[in-house]
Each structure stands twice: as C-alpha cells, then as structure tokens.
Amino acid sequence: VKSKAGRKLRFTEQTTSMPGASTGQVVVTDHLNFWGGCRVKPKDGINHTTYTRPFTKSNAIQSAHTAYLKWSKMAGMERARVMLEAARIIRERRDNIAKLEVINNGKSITEARVDIDVSWQTLEYYAGIAGTLAGEHIQLPGGSFAYTRREALGVCVGIGAWNYPFQIACWKSAPALACGNAMVFKPSPFTAVTAVILAEIYKEAGVPDGLFNVVQGGAETGTLLCNHPGVAKVSFTGSVPTGKKIMEMSAKTVKQVTLELGGKSPLIIFKDCELENAVRGALMANFLTQGEVCCNGTRVYVQREIMPVFLEEVVKRTKAIRIGDPLLENTRMGALITRQHLDKVLGFVSQAKKEGAMVLCGGEAFTPIEPKLKGGYYMSPCVLDNCTDDMTCVKEEIFGPVMSVMPFDTEEEVLKRANNTTFGLASGVFTRDISRAHRVAENLQAGTCFINNYNISPVEVPFGGYKQSGFGRENGQVTIEYYSQLKTVVVEMGDVDDYFNC
Ligand SMILES: NC(=O)C1=CN([C@@H]2O[C@H](COP(=O)(O)OP(=O)(O)OC[C@H]3O[C@@H](n4cnc5c(N)ncnc54)[C@H](O)[C@@H]3O)[C@@H](O)[C@H]2O)C=CC1
Ligand SMILES: C[N+](C)(C)CCCC(=O)O
C-alpha cells in the first residue's frame, strides 16, 4: 500500500490491484504520524513524504524527551512489565498485523507471520533483560569506593528500511525502551503503516505518552532527525550511501550511531556438504522476501566437482517457487516493493547477460494468471551461471531474487575471493568437515557466519556488519551497550589530600 497520511487506517479484504497486487487493501483514513500518545495530523495536511517539523515547539522529539524523563526513572522490572504486555498484544494480533505487513510490503503471508513472531519475541527478550540492568561496585583504598550506573541515552531515533517494516521497528525500539530511552521512529515512506500500529500497541500496554513516536517522511525528515540537537542516538537500517550521510550528520553533535547497511554476502558450498541441505540453504540465502534482504548470500561459491549437480537441483527448486498473491497460504514469493525497484533488479539481470553471465532460470517480469494481480511488481527468481568475480551482478547489491553462482577449487582461494568486497554483513558455509567449517567462519570478514544453514537470526543472537556493512549490533545482550551509557560515581570516605598547601 502506498498509504497516504492524513486518512484513517482500516483493513479490508477486497480484491484490488494495490502496489504489490495482493488481494488485500488498506484504506488509510487516519493519520500515520504518532506523537505524544496519539495520531497526529500532518501540518501540511497533504502527504507524509513532504512533512515533518521536528524543530517546532510541539514536536515528536520534545514529547519523547518528556516521556524519557518519566520512563528512565522507573525500575527495569516496571518497564519489563509494560513491554511484556506489548509483546502479548502483538502475539494476540499477529495475524492481522502480518496481513497489513503483506499488503504494505508485498512479501508472502507465511513470511510476514514469522516477522511478527520475531517482533514480539524481541520485546519479550529485552523485557527480560530490562530487570537485570545493573552497574558494578569497585573497592578503592581506605574504604573509598566507586560504582557504575547503566543509564539511558535519552531520545533515540530509529530510521527503517522497507523490507522488514514492523520487525525493524521492534529490533530498534525494544532494546531502546528496555534501557529507559524514548524513541522517535521514521519508517520508510514505502511502508508507512505498521510502525504506527506498534506505537498504538505500546500505548495500550502502558508506556508514557510520547515514549514511542512515529514520524513519516523520506530523506528530508530523516535529515532533520539526524541533525536535531535533542537526539542522543541514531540507529539506521538502509543503504550504504544513506548510512554514510547519517554518520556525517550525527558527527556534528557527536550522536551515537548504529548502522545496519547493505551486503553482498558469500555462501561457500564445499563438495563434502550434505547437498540437499546446501541447495535448500542457497534458496534460503537468496529468495526470502523476494530477495530484498540485506544479509542474503547472493555470491554462491560452489566447489567445482559438485557444480553440475548443485546447479541442476537449485534450478529445479527455484523454478518450482510459487509466485503470486502474497496473502495466499501456499505462495512462497510475493511482489517486489515498487515498479522502480523491479526495473532496477531486472536491469541487473540484463547487465549480467551483457557481461557474459548465463541465465539458468527466471530473471523476468512475471504476470500471475489471476486478473486481479496484473500490474503487480512480480518477477521470477533468477539463477545466474558463468559468473565471475568482476561482474556487476557479483559486486553490487541487487536486493532482489537473483543468485550468482561461481565455481571454486580450494579453501584458500575461495576465502580470498569471498573477502574481496567492501561489504561484510554475513556469510555462510556448507561442509561436513567441522574443522573446516570453524576455520572458514574464523577467516570470513563478516559480522555473521552461518554454518550449514542460512538467514537464521533469532533475537538472542547479535546481528550486524563488518566493513562498509556498518557497525554496532542489533539483538543479543550486547545491544544494551548500544542503547545505554555508563556513569562512574567515585565516593571518598576519608579526607581530601592537602596537596596544594602542605
Ligand atoms: N543491514 C540491515 O539490517 C539492512 C540493510 N538494508 C539495506 O537497505 C537498503 C534498502 O533499503 P532502502 O529503504 O532503499 O534504503 P535507503 O537508504 O534508501 O533508505 C533507508 C531509510 O533511510 C531514509 N533516508 C533516505 N535518505 C535519508 C537521509 N539523507 N537522511 C536520513 N534518512 C534518509 C529513508 O527514508 C528510509 O527510511 C539496501 O541497501 C539494504 O541492504 C535493508 C534492510 C536491513
Ligand atoms: C530476518 N532476516 C535475517 C531474514 C533478515 C534481517 C535483516 C534485514 O532486515 O534484512
């Protein structure tokens, strides 16, 4: 849905050809901004993309700051209770939120349900940690001592991409709120709807008004948020070029930054792998959410001896992927996010052909037979053979369902080739040799290495990049460090030295 701000949000199951061409439709009749505990009318009253005034008096950042003062004084256990209630509400409304996510994003309903499950689990996980936040006591000479306090940062900004709209909002807000911060979240203008649902759920669960706010808009709004002196931290998910701008803007007032950026991750398949699993893994690494996944393993290196059998299997299964109405239970691939993005992905396939790659399957615009789905942004998932490391399709992030396959001979060679990239988000290896698996994991320059599977990221496990794929982490206990700061309190129990007058 291209939701228009300033109208009411209602979910109806009508047949229509909305962007993404699902059988559902969202009619937006309520405002999509959410500040100070309620939906707010855009000041220009027209379109969320041209709107926001973070510098004006009554604004999202100010209301977030007021809420932060209250929330950060509560005990971790009290915050935990509210967060657990929010998790419960998400779980209860899982199917409805998942439907909205499908209509908004175009991904299949079965995937969207997993996203929503991961979302409430994220809130539960950080609720569990909220009650454990603590400092330490350090003994000093003469009975003096010091202690540390783990304190919130203040108002944190979250800026999200369009591929996992609700989940990204939860990955950012859950650790932020657990630590006592407030958050102003800006979703991608392509997927404006579900972050507001999260804001309403937090309110219903009992967070103070203004603790989690949603401002709609694009680059202009994001820029205002990153430059705002009242913001302590920016957590960004999106492309590398935008990430660089975010870092630059944040530097002006020394804001803390977490950057979850793009990738071009290698997946290495050795000849001693369990082939069935490796083929399934390659599909998991390339075709979730229409291939619009930052950590996808899109450079698939296959040991030469098993290349023919691997290709045969992978092509057979790729051709069998059911593309179509994302709201149907048996659909496994929905529609890409926009016409423009679809054209871009198809352009990568044409370029690959020009550079000598061979299309083994897919790579074309796809029109489902149902008339109601015509006009949707579908494409057939693509496997490219005859690829070399210097081709555009192997070097650049495509962010669509396009797998590039390349042969390799030795471990040493493939590691060198796998690491020859400015990205470093994820990586994967399939082998039955446990020593080799751990050796390869050690030597791959990436924030995650999946052994004998791919794209498994439960909330307990830290997620983030090496190199230009970003820094900071989301998920796992470590993320607490990225949403809090340590205060040292030094306590003198004796007299102050008479150093200057003795
Ligand atoms: N590492 C990760 O966790 C993920 C990374 N991504 C990356 O995101 C990209 C696709 O997402 P897009 O939404 O197209 O990325 P994008 O960088 O164009 O936009 C991301 C967000 O930043 C905002 N934005 C754009 N320009 C801005 C500016 N100058 N200042 C502040 N905010 C600005 C957008 O409105 C959007 O909310 C891919 O490259 C992908 O790899 C996507 C999902 C997850
Ligand atoms: C959930 N997972 C691992 C498939 C992708 C999460 C990262 C992203 O937002 O692209």
From TrEMBL:
<dbReference type="GO" id="GO:0016620">
    <property type="term" value="F:oxidoreductase activity, acting on the aldehyde or oxo group of donors, NAD or NADP as acceptor"/>
</dbReference>
<comment type="similarity">
    <text>Belongs to the aldehyde dehydrogenase family.</text>
</comment>
<protein>
    <submittedName>
        <fullName>Aldehyde dehydrogenase 9 family, member A1a, tandem duplicate 1</fullName>
    </submittedName>
</protein>
<feature type="active site">
    <location>
        <position position="260"/>
    </location>
</feature>
<dbReference type="InterPro" id="IPR016162">
    <property type="entry name" value="Ald_DH_N"/>
</dbReference>
<dbReference type="InterPro" id="IPR016161">
    <property type="entry name" value="Ald_DH/histidinol_DH"/>
</dbReference>
<feature type="domain" description="Aldehyde dehydrogenase">
    <location>
        <begin position="59"/>
        <end position="489"/>
    </location>
</feature>
<dbReference type="InterPro" id="IPR016160">
    <property type="entry name" value="Ald_DH_CS_CYS"/>
</dbReference>
<dbReference type="InterPro" id="IPR016163">
    <property type="entry name" value="Ald_DH_C"/>
</dbReference>
<dbReference type="Pfam" id="PF00171">
    <property type="entry name" value="Aldedh"/>
</dbReference>
<dbReference type="InterPro" id="IPR015590">
    <property type="entry name" value="Aldehyde_DH_dom"/>
</dbReference>
<keyword id="KW-0560">Oxidoreductase</keyword>
<dbReference type="InterPro" id="IPR029510">
    <property type="entry name" value="Ald_DH_CS_GLU"/>
</dbReference>
